[in-house]
Give the backbone structure.
Amino acid sequence: MAVFTTGEAVALDLPIARIPTRAVAFVIDVLLQLLFGWLLVMVALAVLAGVDTDGAWWDTAFTVMFVAVLAGYPIVWETLLRGRTPGKAALGLRVVRGDGGPIDFRHALTRGLAAVIIDFWGFGVFGAIGVLTSLCSARARRVGDVLAGTVVVYDRNPIPWPKLAIMPPWLQGWAQQLDLSGLTEDLALPARHYLTRYFELTPETQQQLGRALVTAVCRRIRAVPPPGTPPLHILGAIVSERQRRTLGVPAQPNLMPLEHVSW
C-alpha cells in the first residue's frame, strides 16, 4: 500500500502493482500486439501487392506499422480506458497519476514512448531496464512512470474513501478565521499523516510530534494556537478547514464559540 495525496488535499491508500502481476499483463498485451501487427501486415500486403511501388513504400508502411503496434497500442488504450490496456484490465491494474487521479493522453504518450525507447524495446534490452528500475523504486515505477509522473496500482478492489479530517466543533470559529494561504503541501502533508497515523504512535510521540507540527504550522499561517488545546485537535481543525476550502464546501454556522469553551 502507498499513500497518494490528491489535488483536494486528501490521502488515499492504494495497493501498488508489483513486477509479477505487471509482467503477466505485459505478456497479454504483447500477444495482442503481435496479433494486431499481423493484421496490419496482411492489410498492407493486400493494399500494396497489386501496386507498382519501389522499396521506399514498403519501408514507410512497415515503419508506420512498427510505431502503431509498439507505441500506438498502449497509448490509445491507456488514453481511452483512463490508464488501462487489455492486459492491465485482465489483471485488475490501472495507471494513475502520482496524486492518484486518472491519467490523460499526455501521460499515456510519455509512458508509451518511454516503453519503446528505454524500458522494453530500443535501449531496454528486452525489458531489463524496465525491470531494474521497477525493482529499485519504492512504488515499482519504470522509467516511463518516472517521466510521466504515474504509478501502476490495483483497482479491482473498491477504492477506499478519502481520509478527511474532522473539525472539532469548539475550534470551528477559530479555524474559519485563519489565513491558510501560507500552508503549503510541505507542511500540510505531514499534518495529515500525523492525523491518520495518530493511534499508531506512542503517547510520547503523539505529544512531541504534535507540538512540533502545531508550532511549525501556526508559525507558517501566523496564527496563535488556542491555549490548552491538544495538538490533535488543533491540527484536525486546520487540516479540516483547508480541505473544506479546497473542496468548496460552504462553511457551517459555528455552534460552539471558542470563547465559551472551558479548556
Remarks:
- Residues 169-257 form one domain.
- The radius of gyration is 26 Å.
- The CA atoms of residues 36 and 69 lie 7 Å apart.
- The first strand starts at residue 2 and ends at 5.
